[in-house]
# Entry
Amino acid sequence: MQSIAVYCGARAGTRGALFHDAARALADCFARAGLGLVYGGSDNGVMGTLANAALDAGCHVTGVMPRDTGLKEQAHEGLSELVWVGSMTERKQEMMRLADGFIALPGGVGTLEELFEAWSCAQLDMHRKPCALLNVDGYFDGLLAFISGARASGMIAPAYADMLIVESDPDMLLTRMTAYQPPQSRWR
Ligand code: AMP
# Structure
Protein backbone atom coordinates (compact mmCIF):
# COMPACT_ATOMS: atom_id res chain seq x y z
CA MET A 1 0.00 0.00 0.00
CA GLN A 2 1.26 3.46 -0.89
CA SER A 3 -1.56 5.64 0.40
CA ILE A 4 -4.65 5.25 2.53
CA ALA A 5 -7.79 7.38 2.64
CA VAL A 6 -8.99 8.39 6.08
CA TYR A 7 -12.58 9.46 6.68
CA CYS A 8 -13.18 11.45 9.86
CA GLY A 9 -15.22 14.23 11.41
CA ALA A 10 -15.23 17.80 10.17
CA ARG A 11 -16.19 18.72 13.75
CA ALA A 12 -13.95 18.81 16.78
CA GLY A 13 -16.34 16.81 18.97
CA THR A 14 -16.85 17.11 22.70
CA ARG A 15 -14.63 14.34 24.01
CA GLY A 16 -11.63 16.50 24.76
CA ALA A 17 -8.41 15.63 23.00
CA LEU A 18 -9.21 11.93 22.60
CA PHE A 19 -10.16 11.86 18.92
CA HIS A 20 -7.50 14.40 18.00
CA ASP A 21 -4.82 12.38 19.79
CA ALA A 22 -5.98 9.29 17.89
CA ALA A 23 -5.71 11.22 14.61
CA ARG A 24 -2.16 12.31 15.53
CA ALA A 25 -1.20 8.74 16.51
CA LEU A 26 -2.52 7.43 13.19
CA ALA A 27 -0.57 10.12 11.31
CA ASP A 28 2.63 9.00 13.08
CA CYS A 29 1.95 5.41 12.04
CA PHE A 30 1.48 6.57 8.44
CA ALA A 31 4.85 8.35 8.55
CA ARG A 32 6.63 5.31 10.00
CA ALA A 33 5.07 3.11 7.34
CA GLY A 34 5.92 5.58 4.56
CA LEU A 35 2.25 5.93 3.66
CA GLY A 36 0.63 8.90 1.97
CA LEU A 37 -2.62 10.27 3.37
CA VAL A 38 -5.68 10.91 1.23
CA TYR A 39 -8.52 12.71 2.98
CA GLY A 40 -11.37 15.14 2.37
CA GLY A 41 -9.19 18.27 2.25
CA SER A 42 -10.88 20.20 5.03
CA ASP A 43 -9.10 22.29 7.65
CA ASN A 44 -11.84 21.66 10.20
CA GLY A 45 -12.26 19.34 13.17
CA VAL A 46 -10.59 15.95 13.35
CA MET A 47 -9.89 16.24 9.60
CA GLY A 48 -7.73 19.33 10.14
CA THR A 49 -5.88 17.76 13.07
CA LEU A 50 -5.14 14.63 11.04
CA ALA A 51 -3.85 16.58 8.05
CA ASN A 52 -1.62 18.84 10.16
CA ALA A 53 -0.20 15.89 12.09
CA ALA A 54 0.49 13.97 8.87
CA LEU A 55 2.21 17.00 7.31
CA ASP A 56 4.28 17.57 10.46
CA ALA A 57 5.29 13.90 10.40
CA GLY A 58 6.48 14.23 6.78
CA CYS A 59 3.67 12.43 4.96
CA HIS A 60 2.47 13.38 1.49
CA VAL A 61 -1.09 14.61 2.08
CA THR A 62 -3.66 14.80 -0.69
CA GLY A 63 -6.96 16.56 -0.01
CA VAL A 64 -10.01 15.99 -2.20
CA MET A 65 -12.43 18.86 -1.84
CA PRO A 66 -15.74 19.56 -3.57
CA ARG A 67 -16.09 23.11 -4.86
CA ASP A 68 -19.23 23.55 -2.79
CA THR A 69 -19.55 21.32 0.26
CA GLY A 70 -22.89 22.83 1.23
CA LEU A 71 -21.35 23.05 4.70
CA LYS A 72 -19.09 25.63 6.29
CA GLU A 73 -15.96 23.68 5.52
CA GLN A 74 -12.68 25.37 4.72
CA ALA A 75 -10.09 23.84 2.44
CA HIS A 76 -6.70 23.29 4.06
CA GLU A 77 -4.27 25.57 2.24
CA GLY A 78 -0.99 23.91 3.24
CA LEU A 79 -1.46 20.41 1.80
CA SER A 80 1.02 18.63 -0.46
CA GLU A 81 -1.77 18.45 -3.02
CA LEU A 82 -5.36 19.66 -3.15
CA VAL A 83 -7.66 18.15 -5.76
CA TRP A 84 -10.87 20.07 -6.49
CA VAL A 85 -13.87 18.06 -7.63
CA GLY A 86 -17.40 18.98 -8.64
CA SER A 87 -19.48 17.19 -6.03
CA MET A 88 -19.54 15.02 -2.91
CA THR A 89 -20.06 11.99 -5.14
CA GLU A 90 -16.96 12.81 -7.17
CA ARG A 91 -15.03 13.32 -3.94
CA LYS A 92 -15.79 9.78 -2.79
CA GLN A 93 -14.95 8.35 -6.20
CA GLU A 94 -11.66 10.24 -6.39
CA MET A 95 -10.65 9.25 -2.85
CA MET A 96 -11.46 5.62 -3.66
CA ARG A 97 -9.40 5.83 -6.85
CA LEU A 98 -6.37 7.48 -5.21
CA ALA A 99 -6.13 5.30 -2.10
CA ASP A 100 -5.12 1.68 -1.58
CA GLY A 101 -7.29 1.26 1.52
CA PHE A 102 -9.79 3.11 3.71
CA ILE A 103 -9.97 3.92 7.41
CA ALA A 104 -12.74 5.58 9.38
CA LEU A 105 -11.84 7.56 12.49
CA PRO A 106 -14.55 9.08 14.71
CA GLY A 107 -16.85 11.29 12.69
CA GLY A 108 -20.47 11.94 11.85
CA VAL A 109 -22.86 11.27 9.01
CA GLY A 110 -20.33 12.16 6.29
CA THR A 111 -17.74 9.79 7.74
CA LEU A 112 -20.22 6.93 8.01
CA GLU A 113 -21.51 7.54 4.51
CA GLU A 114 -17.99 7.46 3.07
CA LEU A 115 -17.03 4.30 4.96
CA PHE A 116 -20.20 2.48 3.98
CA GLU A 117 -19.77 3.38 0.34
CA ALA A 118 -16.19 2.05 0.35
CA TRP A 119 -17.32 -1.13 2.14
CA SER A 120 -20.33 -1.70 -0.11
CA CYS A 121 -18.15 -1.22 -3.20
CA ALA A 122 -15.76 -3.85 -1.78
CA GLN A 123 -18.70 -6.24 -1.41
CA LEU A 124 -19.63 -5.65 -5.03
CA ASP A 125 -16.04 -6.33 -6.05
CA MET A 126 -15.76 -2.81 -7.48
CA HIS A 127 -12.41 -2.61 -5.70
CA ARG A 128 -10.35 -5.11 -3.71
CA LYS A 129 -8.93 -2.74 -1.10
CA PRO A 130 -9.20 -3.08 2.71
CA CYS A 131 -11.84 -1.14 4.66
CA ALA A 132 -11.19 -0.46 8.34
CA LEU A 133 -12.43 1.25 11.47
CA LEU A 134 -10.21 2.68 14.18
CA ASN A 135 -12.45 2.22 17.20
CA VAL A 136 -11.16 5.04 19.40
CA ASP A 137 -12.37 4.72 22.99
CA GLY A 138 -15.30 2.55 21.92
CA TYR A 139 -16.72 5.31 19.70
CA PHE A 140 -18.02 2.78 17.16
CA ASP A 141 -19.26 0.17 19.67
CA GLY A 142 -22.92 0.95 18.93
CA LEU A 143 -22.36 0.68 15.19
CA LEU A 144 -20.43 -2.58 15.60
CA ALA A 145 -23.28 -3.98 17.72
CA PHE A 146 -25.69 -3.08 14.95
CA ILE A 147 -23.50 -4.78 12.32
CA SER A 148 -23.25 -7.84 14.51
CA GLY A 149 -27.06 -7.91 14.89
CA ALA A 150 -27.53 -7.50 11.13
CA ARG A 151 -25.15 -10.41 10.58
CA ALA A 152 -27.00 -12.56 13.12
CA SER A 153 -30.27 -11.67 11.37
CA GLY A 154 -28.87 -12.85 8.05
CA MET A 155 -28.88 -9.39 6.51
CA ILE A 156 -25.10 -9.11 6.19
CA ALA A 157 -23.35 -12.25 4.98
CA PRO A 158 -20.58 -13.34 7.40
CA ALA A 159 -17.97 -12.97 4.66
CA TYR A 160 -19.09 -9.39 4.02
CA ALA A 161 -19.06 -8.57 7.73
CA ASP A 162 -15.57 -10.06 8.05
CA MET A 163 -14.25 -7.70 5.38
CA LEU A 164 -14.40 -4.78 7.79
CA ILE A 165 -11.18 -4.61 9.83
CA VAL A 166 -11.72 -3.23 13.34
CA GLU A 167 -8.95 -2.34 15.79
CA SER A 168 -8.38 0.20 18.53
CA ASP A 169 -4.61 0.32 17.98
CA PRO A 170 -3.46 2.15 14.82
CA ASP A 171 -0.31 0.05 14.26
CA MET A 172 -2.33 -3.16 14.50
CA LEU A 173 -4.90 -1.69 12.15
CA LEU A 174 -2.25 -0.95 9.50
CA THR A 175 -0.68 -4.39 9.97
CA ARG A 176 -4.02 -6.08 9.33
CA MET A 177 -4.77 -3.83 6.37
CA THR A 178 -1.41 -4.69 4.82
CA ALA A 179 -2.12 -8.42 5.28
CA TYR A 180 -5.69 -8.14 3.95
CA GLN A 181 -6.62 -10.68 1.30
CA PRO A 182 -9.79 -9.87 -0.58
CA PRO A 183 -12.17 -12.78 -1.08
CA GLN A 184 -11.31 -14.84 -4.15
CA SER A 185 -14.70 -14.49 -5.72
CA ARG A 186 -18.07 -12.88 -5.14
CA TRP A 187 -20.52 -14.75 -2.99
CA ARG A 188 -24.08 -14.32 -1.78
P1 AMP B 1 -18.80 14.43 9.13
O1 AMP B 1 -18.39 13.04 9.48
O2 AMP B 1 -20.31 14.55 8.97
O3 AMP B 1 -18.23 15.47 10.04
O4 AMP B 1 -18.23 14.72 7.68
C1 AMP B 1 -16.91 14.38 7.36
C2 AMP B 1 -16.63 14.77 5.94
O5 AMP B 1 -17.48 14.07 5.06
C3 AMP B 1 -16.84 16.25 5.64
O6 AMP B 1 -15.72 16.71 4.88
C4 AMP B 1 -18.09 16.27 4.79
O7 AMP B 1 -18.07 17.31 3.82
C5 AMP B 1 -17.99 14.93 4.09
N1 AMP B 1 -19.25 14.44 3.58
C6 AMP B 1 -20.50 14.62 4.08
N2 AMP B 1 -21.42 14.00 3.32
C7 AMP B 1 -20.73 13.41 2.30
C8 AMP B 1 -21.11 12.64 1.15
N3 AMP B 1 -22.37 12.33 0.92
N4 AMP B 1 -20.11 12.24 0.32
C9 AMP B 1 -18.82 12.55 0.55
N5 AMP B 1 -18.41 13.27 1.61
C10 AMP B 1 -19.34 13.70 2.47
In short: The chain has a mean pLDDT of 94. Residues 9-11, 40, 42, 69, 71, 73, 88, 91-92, 107-111, 113-114 surround adenosine monophosphate (CB under 6 Å).
